[in-house]
Each structure stands twice: as C-alpha cells, then as structure tokens.
Write a structure and sequence with these properties.
Blueprint: H1 3-32, H2 37-57, H3 65-72, E1 76-77, E2 83-84, H4 89-108, H5 121-126, H6 144-159, H7 163-189, H8 205-214, H9 227-230, E3 236-237, E4 240-241, H10 249-266
Antiparallel strand pairs: 1-2, 3-4
Helix pairs in contact: 1-2, 1-4, 2-4, 6-7, 7-8, 7-10
Length: 270
C-alpha cells in the first residue's frame, strides 16, 4: 500500500475513533436525560458529523452499503416491515455507533486505494462483538431476533474455526430469509416463476433458492454456494450433523459470503 493511502486511512480511522468515543458519551447522557435540550442539540450535531463522514467514505453515493446503513439507522420498521416514524434518540445513537464500527472494520482491512468495500467475513469477525446486523427487512417480526442471533452465531463459529457449524448456521439463516420473502410474496404472486406443487414449506432448500431467483427476489449470488451447503439439510439427522470434519474453511466462508449477498438483495434499503 502506498504511504499516502496508508496515511489517509489512518486519518479516517482516527476521525472515526473520535466520533465513536463522542457517540458513547452522548449515549450515556441520553440514558440519564433524554429530554435535556442541550443533550439533544449535541446529539443532532454529532449525527450531522457522522453523516458528513459517512458521505465522504461512501464517495457521495447513496447506493453505497455504508450510506444505506446510515440511512436505515433512522428508520423503525412496523410489523409488516414498512418504514415508520419514531425511533428513540438513544436507539439512533446506538445504531450509528454500529455503522461507524462497520466502517472501522472495513477501513482496517483495506489494502489499496479502492473505494470502501463491504466488510469481509474476516473483518466482520474481528470487529466489535457488540456490532450486530439488524434484519428489519424480514417480514415476519417473530423471525427477526432469531435470524439476528443465528447470523451472529455463524460469524462466531467461523472465527472459532468451527466450519461445519458456521456453514450449517449460515445455510439456516439463508433458508429462513428466502422462505420469509417467498411466503410474503405468496404462491399467487410467484405464479410467473413456474413454482412446483405443494406449499412453500414443503419445498427443498434448493427449490426455494431457485424460485426466489426466478421471481426476482434475489439475484444470481447463490450460484457460488458450495455443493455441500446445498445439501446441508440432508446431512443433519435428529439435530446431529454429519458434516463435522468435512467442511473446509473455504466452504464456510463462501457460504457466509453468499448469505451476505442475498441479504443485500432482500434489504429494501438497497
């Protein structure tokens, strides 16, 4: 990496660190006096500084993953997944701290002068453990905390080199997200995708992925899914897995990467 690029990254990291420290201080003040006018004014000023920084890091593109994450931090989802008003100030600060942490993780892993890319699996695993991906785009509100926890578990398993667990958990999240999108669309809405007979819950994992792609719910990212991931359900019996020792690190990482691609496809904020 050229020294000039390295220096720019270090400057940005230092600036982000300052924003994060200030944000945590604001978070504490809001917890003890959320209605304090001075605290609210400080919060708004900090949010503006965060917005300016995120805009710079994303190259001014509102379609950039970091810019979308920043915008989504201000949204609250209703039970049907639509945007609603009224996110508490301290919750917005918490979400923005998450976004800043993701920017730090991505910048820390950069090796050149290319635009800030989406966080890789290794960067995400080494980032702040408190940073969690939210799944507010999921239509079934009861499913959101389940997939959020499972997603975090898959990343933790990958970090701990439990590759069979990481792959199975990532596949489970992938199947749950695609099934949620299919069920929200409904069999009638999927008619043009040449759906098979039976209920969606009866379809195989492979069939659900194929129909979701034909229906335009997801794009072609699942083509990179390893063969062992496509049959992950066939290798589980009574809660026990037959995959232990047969899943490579590459298999687990590719599955996690495919999951992240599908998440971006399904996220309405893209």
């Amino acid at each position: 990496m050229e020294e000039s690029v390295r220096a720019q990254i270090e400057i940005q990291l230092s600036h982000l660190d300052g924003l994060i420290r200030r944000g945590r201080q604001i978070q504490e003040r809001l917890r003890t006096g959320a209605s304090n006018p001075a605290a609210m004014a400080e919060t708004r000023a900090w949010q503006e500084h965060c917005g300016t920084t995120i805009n710079q890091l994303s190259g001014g593109s509102k379609a950039h993953w970091l810019a979308r994450s920043f915008s989504n931090a201000f949204l609250m989802r209703s039970a049907d997944g639509r945007a609603a008003e009224g996110v508490p100030a301290d919750e917005i600060v918490k979400r923005l701290l998450d976004v800043l942490g993701q920017a730090v993780a991505s910048l820390s892993g950069m090796s050149g002068s290319s635009p800030l890319g989406a966080p890789s699996e290794s960067q995400a695993a080494s980032s702040d453990a408190g940073i969690r991906r939210r799944f507010e785009f999921v239509h079934n509100p009861k499913l959101r905390p389940v997939v959020e926890q499972a997603y975090a578990d898959s990343r933790r398993a990958l970090e701990q080199k439990e590759y069979d667990v990481a792959l199975r958990t990532s596949c489970g999240v992938l199947e749950a997200l695609v099934t949620d999108a299919l069920e929200h669309k409904g069999l009638q809405g999927l008619a043009s995708a040449d759906v098979p007979a039976g209920e969606i819950s009866d379809w195989s994992f492979e069939t659900r992925l194929g129909v979701a792609e034909k229906a335009g719910l997801i794009r072609g990212g699942c083509a990179r899914l390893p063969a062992i991931a496509r049959t992950y359900r066939d290798n589980s019996h009574g809660g026990e897995s037959d995959l232990r020792g047969t899943v490579s690190e590459n298999d687990a990482r590719r599955t996690g990467q495919v999951l992240n691609v599908v998440i971006r496809d399904l996220d309405p904020g893209r």
